[in-house]
Amino acid sequence: MLQHFPVSEFISGVRGIIIENLWKEFYQLYEFMRKPNYTKEEILTFKNNAKNWVKTFSQPARGQINTVTVILGIYREEDVTSYMHMLTMHIPFFMRQLKEKNLAFRLFSTSSIEKKNHCQVQLFFGGTTIGGGKKNKPVVYDILVYENRKIFYLINDIPNEITYKNINICE
Question: At 163, is the secondary structure helix, strand, or coil?
């Protein structure tokens, strides 16, 4: 739907046109991933197009700030998400691996990742992570420590709960 949205009618100038093109280019990348099969050359083209898409997305401002000649950037590098990283750095590799097995990325979904994230947020915060928490260490650290302990207990067959038993010693 967003590939047809006229962004340039709401954001004027070159910036609006670039953002509108970003949506169209993302849609093309998405549609390519859903193809039933692709060649090695097409995968390489996809990889280059995805990298160029992220470069355009995070294009910095050019020229002297606060002057008439400045050309504003689109988004900041900090706005690049882990999904964008996956799209450019890992998806092409997965496509090549799947191609060797005569499979494709057609049915890719992030819903399980989103669900896991939702469950972890609920577990650790009982709600949301707005504000980043109040500890010195990053939230991710606590989550990884928790998951590592669960895996350790599972591998070593250690019970998750301790059951107390009363032992009566008679004289």
Answer: coil
Q: List phi, psi (to 5°) of 146.
A: -60, -50
Q: Is the dihedral of CA 81, 87, 88, 91 positive or negative?
A: positive
The whole-model pTM stands at 0.61
Start-end of H helices in the chain: 13-33, 40-57, 82-89, 91-100, 111-125, 139-155
Give the span between the Cα atoms of 143 and 123, in whole angstroms: 9
What are the residue boundaries of the structural domains of the chain, listed by start? Answer: 1-108, 110-171
DSSP-assigned letter for residue 107? T
Q: What is the DSSP letter of 60?
A: P
Each residue's pLDDT tens digit, 55-110: 999 887 777 777 777 777 788 888 888 888 989 999 999 999 988 988 887 766 66
